[in-house]
Amino acid sequence: MLSSLSSSSSEDFMEAWLSSNIDILSGTTVANILVVIGFVIYYTGLKSFAEIQKDDFTAENILKIRRAAICGVIALLLGYIPFIGGFGGWILNLVMYFMLASAYGYLRYSPVFNIRAKAGARLLRSAAIMYIIGMFIPIIGGLFSFMGLLMTIIGWGRIRKGGPIAAVASVATNITYNYYTSSVPTETLSSPNPATPTSGERPKFCPHCGAPCKEYQRYCPNCGFELDKKPEEPVMPIVEKKEPPATKVEPVRTPPEPSTADTTSKEAPSKQEKNQRDKSNKQALVLISGVVIFLIIGLCVYNFWYKPYATDRDALRYYTFTNLNLRSSENAELKDNIIEMLPYGTELITYGKGYSWARVKANGKEGHVAAHLILSKEDFQLLDGVWGNEEAKKCVGSAHYRLAVIDYLKRNEFFSGAREWQIFSKPYGSAQNTIAYPNLSQEENGDGLIFIVKNNRTNERKLVIYGFTTTEPKSPVFKTDFRLEKDLSIQKAVCRLDKYDNLWIRVTFNDGSYKTFRVYM
Predict the structure, then answer these.
(1) Three-state secondary structure call for residue 289
(2) Contact 293/314 with Cβ under 8 angstroms?
(3) pLDDT confidence band for 80 (50 / 70 / 90)
(4) Residue 232: which residues within 8 A CB-CB, separation 6 or more?
(5) pTM of the model
(6) DSSP string of 431-463?
(7) Contact 399, 321 (CB under 8 A)
(8) Which end of the chain is more exposed for a tag (fewer CB within 10 A), N or C?
(9) 113 - beta bridge partners?
(10) Please, which residues have CB within 8 angstroms of residue 321's CB and are 6 or more apart in sequence?
(11) Separation of alpha carbons 200 and 202, rounded Å
(12) Longest Cα pair distance anywhere in the chain, in angstroms?
């Protein structure tokens, strides 16, 4: 793998990265960005969830889940690194699920979780195991992962609804009664117990099981305890009244007023917690803002750079085999819609090709070209290899003549090139040449083509005759071919129509010999 990386150029590396990973825009990258946002929210919420725990053991395992979430984000980003990113991401995902299974396993025995919350932790541990199994089973692994997702949602829902155990302890009605009412101040007897909720108030948690309750609920949704139940008034025991000795009356001692230092020590933690919450909220806001900015930049890059790039990359390539006009509209009769003239061999990025027109991009400009005047890469290479010299390309200059040459090569499955079939010609207008243009249709705008093609490897030569349709665009019509025994040139080609409407072609060669062919109209 390292050798392949070292031998690859930077352009190949970038091309492999773009073609295999950034195909966003099939939706994969947008989905991954949303997953990253979910991880950030999950990461921030776990931190707040850990801070409100009253047990260090529980808080530490929640932070372990938080660290596992970081592994998940890194694994997701590693998937965009070619060659080694996929394997590295798979390993990090496996580590993340093992960390989650360990943390959830410890949370099953959390001293601050009630029965419902512990059941949620057990379900989350099972979900992590399902994810691990899904990673090792390629065929039905998606089913295990889907089941793990459902178990994760249900497990966290149970933890959310479970709440801590007995967050508000049962309030004992420890009321001290002084039967010597004459010596107790009235204010002391009438002051309510601060630990007991006054009439009309609702406890924040159930005093029986500790489950969280709404303000409007009369009964605990977990254990059914009546929340509006007033504490029973203590039964006053019947005590025989005795006159206290006048000399032994003891004054009631009032509790000392709390000092300023005690008040400061109670207020300090609340301010510290508030500062920590503000700091956490700022960090979460920064993270979310960063993710949103990254998402916006990614969408802009996708729409304005990658999408046009991917469209051009995946479009078919066609080539011009004659000089061709690139037009701004599909109208060949206008002159002001011509963008530029495309020479022979211009590569066209083709977005769509119909019967008459093709929408293409050439030299960075988009427009329309005649569909019958462009060739696929294979056909263009076949035509381009048949030219033995520049004179041959000039003599077979018309588009329909070149289509006839391609048709003959493909009809006989011939290859073109320096060691295969080629056409060698003298300059256009020569008295003797390997190319002639008889009028085979005997009409005013009719024409034909006779050419000699040679195999450079075997020295085999063939004389080929083609006719063409009279309607535009002209299409080649194969007539006949003949094997030549020696190197000859065409001196003259004469067509004659007999009384039976048979067309006869007499080809005279440079050595004085001739050959007569009967072709069908």
Answers:
(1) helix
(2) no
(3) confident
(4) 173
(5) 0.49
(6) SSBSEE---SS-STT--EEEEEEEETTT--EEE
(7) yes
(8) N
(9) 164
(10) 344, 345, 373, 374, 375, 380, 383, 399, 402
(11) 7
(12) 165
